[in-house]
Design goal:
The protein is of the alpha/beta class. The protein has three domains: 176 residues, Flavin prenyltransferase-like (Rossmann fold, 3-Layer(aba) Sandwich), CATH 3.40.50; 188 residues, Rossmann fold (3-Layer(aba) Sandwich), CATH 3.40.50.10300; 33 residues, no CATH class. It is built from 14 helices and 22 strands. The strands form six sheets. The chain has an eight-stranded mixed β-sheet, with helices on both faces. Strand 1, helix 1 and strand 2 form a beta-alpha-beta unit. It is elongated, with a radius of gyration of 26 Å. The protein starts with a strand and ends in an 8-residue tail after the last helix. Bound molecules: flavin mononucleotide. Flavin mononucleotide binds next to helix 5.
Length: 413
């Protein structure tokens, strides 16, 4: 087994004693453990136990002499961080971005390329409290791996949810998170608006900028997935390591998608490109008719210039048929124009049905703000609306969570 650096954070729950067993098991497997504890945690478990088990000092204080940069150095050191047990108080602080202790400051400096796991432990009422539930949802949307809680008798005498998961199951989760090599998951993301040539210098295009696709791609690139970014020459680009591929118009987009999907096993396609519904058939001006492709500049002396366009097929409806991997997951986008919610819903349902998309993201022209940034994304699957997101980043994190972390396909959808 590979040896990992595990940062184990303990907070003030009565279940804190179970972290001693967890540390002992992980140490026996040969990993390096460093413990960060809140002041409350040390009311429940002694520093001597933790230092004895890990052979490392326990970190508690942000301003301890000689350890002032712990909030950065420990993040760099750790391959995985786990908060176990995680109190309601700490969960709510993490979700609110509070950094009032070493433990919480470390989360603000967390590198989301590495797993961050939370194992909640609390009384049922604290667990069900709206603040705890909304904090957990928020943390999940940021890519935090929140472990389920057990159900059973709690220290307070109640029976219900909120019990810390059994240490053996926590260990399974830790190893799964460490094993997950996102590199083996291939994602194709299409971006930008097609540009249909009229002649050698003129073209018809749309308002797509590729900013949403670039932000989504950035999330998956940061998490080390194998991303192919198929984009128009003027689309926004992500940074980091990815396969760069380009298209210009409807035909070249269709050709590239087909080539990529038939020659390699992609796991996920996020089809965000804005595709022209029509392409040029011929141009009529004066008494002349020009057939496509028109290489030169069309003479502009005539009073009228008639463009005849032909309807294109829907590339999105062919994506699954092109794919060599028959388990491909397809996320498609429906851009509506000031549509009433029931019309938006109808359009989403039509797209889900015709394209066999697993998920559809609907966004509306009215939610486009200055800088051509889209602000509201509604995510649907074939059964219902899953949620709304205020940014492409939140949408990407949720897609990753549903598709890869919860293993959408393995879970039988
Ligand atoms: C005996 C006792 C047991 C507690 N158990 C829990 C618990 O299991 N989960 C929890 O969320 N809070 C629990 N609390 C409350 C927390 O200790 C309290 O909210 C504390 O401020 C948490 O601080 P921390 O999150 O910085 O560790 C308990 C308090 C006491 C006195």
């Amino acid at each position: 087994m590979l040896k990992y650096n595990i940062l184990l954070k303990i907070t003030g729950s009565i279940a804190a004693y179970k972290s001693a067993y967890l540390i002992s098991r992980l140490m026996q497997d040969g990993h390096n453990i460093k413990v960060v504890a809140t002041d409350s945690a040390l009311q429940f478990i002694g520093e001597a136990t933790l230092e004895g088990l890990t052979a490392n000092p326990v970190y508690t204080d942000s301003f301890e002499q000689g350890k002032m940069m712990s909030h950065i150095n420990l993040v760099k050191w750790a391959d995985l961080t786990i908060v176990v047990p995680a109190t309601a108080n700490t969960i709510n602080k993490l979700a609110a971005g509070v950094g009032d202790s070493l433990l919480t400051s470390l989360f603000l400096a967390h590198d989301f390329c590495k797993p961050y796991v939370i194992a909640p432990a609390m009384n049922t009422a604290m667990f069900n409290h709206p603040s705890t539930q909304s904090s957990l949802t928020k943390l999940v949307s940021w890519g935090v791996n929140v472990l389920p809680t057990g159900e059973g008798y709690l220290a307070c005498g109640d029976y219900g949810r909120g019990k810390l998961l059994e240490p053996e199951r926590i260990i399974e989760f830790i190893y799964n998170a460490l094993k997950k090599n996102n590199n083996d998951k291939k994602i194709l993301i299409t971006a930008g608006g097609t540009k249909e040539n009229i002649d050698g210098i003129r073209s018809i295009t749309n308002i797509s900028t590729g900013k949403t696709a670039a932000a989504i791609a950035q999330h998956f690139i940061n998490k080390n997935y194998s991303v192919t970014y198929l984009h128009t020459p003027d689309a926004a680009l992500p940074s980091g390591k990815y396969e760069d591929d380009q298209f210009q118009d409807f035909i070249s987009l269709n050709d590239r998608i087909k080539e990529l999907l038939t020659s390699d096993d992609f796991d996920l396609v996020i089809h965000n490109a804005a595709v022209s519904d029509y392409s040029l058939l011929e141009v009529e001006t004066g008494a002349k008719i020009y057939a496509v492709p028109i290489k030169n500049k069309i003479d502009s002396s005539g009073d009228e210039l008639i463009l005849r366009l032909k309807k294109n097929f829907k590339i999105v409806e062919r994506i699954k048929t092109y794919s060599r991997n028959k388990k491909l997951i397809l996320v498609s986008f429906k851009f509506t124009n000031d549509a009433a919610s029931e019309i938006q819903r109808e359009k989403v349902e039509m797209l889900l049905k015709n394209s066999y998309s697993d998920f559809v993201v609907q966004n509306d022209f009215s939610d486009r703000i200055a800088g051509s940034k889209q602000t509201t994304f509604n995510l649907y699957d074939s059964k219902s609306k899953i949620d709304s997101f205020a940014s492409s980043e939140e949408l990407a994190a949720q897609l990753e969570q549903i598709i890869f972390i919860k293993d959408y396909l393995e879970a039988g959808k």
